[in-house]
Amino acid sequence: MQSPLKGIRVLDLSRAVAGPLCSSLLSDLGADVFKVEGAPHGDPARAWGPFDDDVSLYFSSVNRGKSSIALDFRAPGSIDLIRELIAQVDVLIENFRPGVMAEMGLDPEELRREHPQLIISSVSGYGSIGPERSTPGLDQVAQGMSGLMSVTGPDKKSFYRLGVPIVDELAGMFSALGIVASLVGRERGGEGSQVQTSLLEAGISAMIFQAQQYLSLGTVPEPQGNHHPVISPYGAFKAADMPLTIAVGTAKHWVLFCEMLGEPDLATREEYATGALRSANGIALRADIERLLGAQTASHWLSRLREMGIPSGPIYTVDQTFADPQVQALEMVQHVADDQGRTVPVLRGPLWIDGVATEVRSAAPGLGSQGEAVLREFGIAQERIDAFIGSGVLHVRPRQETT
Q1: pLDDT of residue 397
Q2: Cα 38 vs. chain centroid, distance in angstroms?
């Protein structure tokens, strides 16, 4: 695989999900990522379950392809060491609250003056301006405040969070996009940039047409359960044995769909004659469709639907997802060695370059497991490294005694 970011060095000070996912995506594309964690406990996500032995799978899922260095940020000399590392990287990633970096002695504006080519990526809860700029933010808080939860659930009385930290993930993806754009701009003769986003902005951005209908029409959207709010039939429908997703998005597909169900007259009923009418009469339409789908299994209907080119698919549990032949063909799961010498399954990133899927370069690192090697890679002499260990700045795993 071509590695578009080969040779790019990233220093990652971020924790939890958004920043770490961003740096993992950069690693997938070839960047060398050095994760700096606060000792003695490291990234707080290391304490979040579920666990495989004592390894947090929450942490592992967004920290593939990195080296870990553990520093005691409060120890004298630790911030100076971080600044020394920053001087040799292309990208710095952080997700502290606005102002915290400056309090630590790592003011982004000062760093940019000292290193004009440096790209700094910052993710906050609410943004760098406004009355809540210093308020801590987390994914579900942003899901609620952005409006995402207000359109997710069975009805307008029940708001649901999404089953994954989607706002964290989006903020990480948006940050990676901003970093790559800044690298392109710098390559064309510019300087570095400070790329900023927030969980709140990422969540609002994800509202797309739901937000736009409010801005243009003043319509406040409500939850639609498992059915599309403006296209019908488009949602989850029960067959004889299990539900499946069916998306009938065109007039041609609507006619074919009704023929497939064995009731072609359904397509010409007055209440279903147009897309707008089908959407307005969605509850009755769903009842008619499920009455007909109940005659056969989901696999029967999926085969027919796909023959006709109507978008459709099963609704899987996670084990069914990974057992599906299409998912297996994509080789989304790669097996790599972790710091304990075990071979572990890791979900790869979703990108392909020149027909080749991105590789998982390494499993998520143990806390500080590459600390000495990282400092040597940055040209720091062993006697200085030993001094950092002795003073408590650098935390490393106990060295194995040789016999």
Answers
A1: 76
A2: 23
The one-character DSSP state at 342 is -
pLDDT tops 90 at residue 114: yes
253 is catalytic: no
Please give the pLDDT value at position 402: 36
CA distance to 57, 227, 265, 342, 356, per residue, from 53 (Å): 10, 40, 59, 12, 33
Give the closest residue to 111 by CA, choosing from 132, 125, 90. 90
Report the 10 Å Cβ neighbour count for 397: 14
Q: Cα 396 to chain center, whole Å?
A: 29
**Proportion of the chain above pLDDT 70, given as a percent:** 98
Lookup: tokens for 79: 């911030």
Residue closest to 97 by CA, chosen among 58, 130, 136 = 136
CA distance 290 to 74: 63
Rounded to whole angstroms, how far apart are CA atoms 197 and 377? Answer: 31
Q: Would you say 198 and 132 are in contact if contact means Cβ atoms under 8 Å apart?
A: no
Q: Which of 228, 300, 335, 395 is catalytic?
A: 228
Task: Answer yes or no: is pLDDT of 392 > 80.
Answer: yes
pLDDT (average), residues 248-255: 96
Query: Which of 345, 326, 325, 327 is closest to 335 using CA atoms?
Result: 345
Structure tokens at 119: 């790209």
Is 233 in a helix, a strand, or coil?
Answer: coil
Contact present, 295 and 238 (Cβ < 8 Å): no
Q: Are strands 55-56 and 66-71 parallel, antiparallel or unpaired?
A: unpaired
Q: Is the peptide bond before 229 cis (omega within 30 degrees of 0)?
A: no
pLDDT in tens, 313-338: 999 999 999 999 999 999 999 999 99
Residue 283: count other Cβ atoms within 10 Å of its Cβ: 9
Q: What pLDDT is attached to residue 340?
A: 86
Cis peptide before 131 (omega within 30 of 0): no
| Distance (Å, whole) CA 143 – CA 164 | 11
| Among 231, 207, 234, 221, CA closest to 155 | 221
Please give the model's pTM, rounded to 2 decimal places: 0.94
The whole-number average pLDDT for the span 50-77 is 96
List of domains in the chain: 9-206+329-395 (3.40.50.10540), 234-238+243-314 (3.30.1540.10)
pLDDT in tens, 170-191: 999 999 999 999 999 999 988 9
Amino acid in position 399: R
